[in-house]
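Quick check before the chapter quiz. The format below is the same one you will see on the exam, so make sure you can read both the input and the output lines.
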Amino acid sequence: MTQKELADRWTISQRTLERWRWAGEGPAYTKLGGRVVYRVCDIEAFEQEVIQSTADQQIRAS
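Here is the expected output.
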């Protein structure tokens, strides 16, 4: 998946994804010929991680 496709999927800016990469955050990515791409399995794993982290925070806040 391209950076644009992922930004559209999450309704965030491409710049946010760039900032996350620079900061070592966000899903794993690969560079192919200078182009940044994301594997769907890495995106889904990141989504699950965020969901779990959010659920854990809500439990601790209760």
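If your answer matched, good. The mean pLDDT is 92.
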